[in-house]
Each structure stands twice: as C-alpha cells, then as structure tokens.
Model the fold of this input.
Amino acid sequence: MNGFAKLGLVAACALVGVSTVSAQGGGPAPTPEKATETAVLTRQGLLKVVAWSFAPVGNMLKGAPFDAAAAQRSASRIKVLATMLPDAFDTDTHAQSKTPTKAKESIWTNKADFASKADDLQKAAAALEDAAKGGSADATKAAARAVGKACGDCHKAYRDE
Ligand code: HEC
Done:
C-alpha cells in the first residue's frame, strides 16, 4: 500500500470513528425496550463466553485427556470474565417481559451477594490457574470441580431452571 492509500485508510477509519460517536451521542437515545434487550443479550453473551472458556476443563472432568496448558488458559479467561459479571448485571431488567431471560429478580435485591458469588468464581478460577501451572492432573481437576461449584452456586440462587 502506498503512502497516500494508507493515509486515506487512516482518514476513513477516523471518520467512521467520529460518525459512530456522534450516532451514539447526538442521535435519538435507544428506547427503554431496546436498552433492556441490549443489557440482557450482553450479559447472556458474557455467560456464553464464560461457558465456552470452561468447556475444555469441563471436558477433562468428563474424561478428556488432561492438558495443563489448556486448563491454564481456561482459568485465566474465566478469572477475567468473572470480574465483569456484576457490571454486566447492573441493569435491572426484571420488570421487562420481551427479551427472554432466566435472571431472577433477587439479583437486584441482593446485589452484594450476587457480586460475592461472582467473586467466588473469580477466586476459584485463580486457584484453578495455580493448580494447572503446578501441572498435577488431580489438583487441577479438583480445582476445576470447585469452579463448576461456583457456577452452580450462583445459578441455584439467581437463575431460573
Ligand atoms: C454470579 C452469578 C453467576 C455465576 C458465578 C455464573 N453464572 Fe451462569 N448465569 C447466571 C445468570 C443469572 C444467568 C441467566 C442470565 C439471563 O438469562 O439473563 C446465567 C446464564 C448462564 C448461561 C446461559 C447463557 C445464555 O445463553 O443465555 C450459561 C451457559 C452459563 N450461565 C454458564 C455458566 C458457567 C459455565 C459458569 C461458571 C464457569 C457460570 N455460568 C457462572 C449467573 C451466574
């Protein structure tokens, strides 16, 4: 790419950036319905990524070959994702009826407890990361079960069946 083409691309990217910002800042605000839908889909997307990150270690618990590096990668991802959970559930959507959700209303009346369950997951993932670094299959699997328990503890309290 020559210098001018490069410059043009940079300029085009800058323009896109500007118009995106002004579309959010100056255009009509999203309807409450749309904002709620976005909040629900965003947190569900986050949990899909949490589950996707856990899948390799979940499979090891079900008999897939032990892979310390894969377990470590899963753990380090979950460790970060867990810190996003309380913020991702910040918008109280219990009064909405349009976007399907399994989130229980009690999330928003027990915010501190919900956040502590996210913190439990974060800590369990940190312990899993340490165990995987240590390289012991038994210790890693025990730590992976504790991560699974942290998922289940929150679901039992705050997710509809
Ligand atoms: C702090 C609470 C909490 C923790 C910890 C948690 N979850 Fe969840 N999870 C929820 C709630 C609440 C929902 C329902 C969200 C909704 O429907 O709006 C959910 C939904 C899900 C979903 C469905 C997402 C979708 O497609 O709609 C999956 C999959 C999931 N969780 C997996 C996991 C796994 C795996 C873990 C642990 C590694 C985990 N979750 C840890 C609270 C939690």
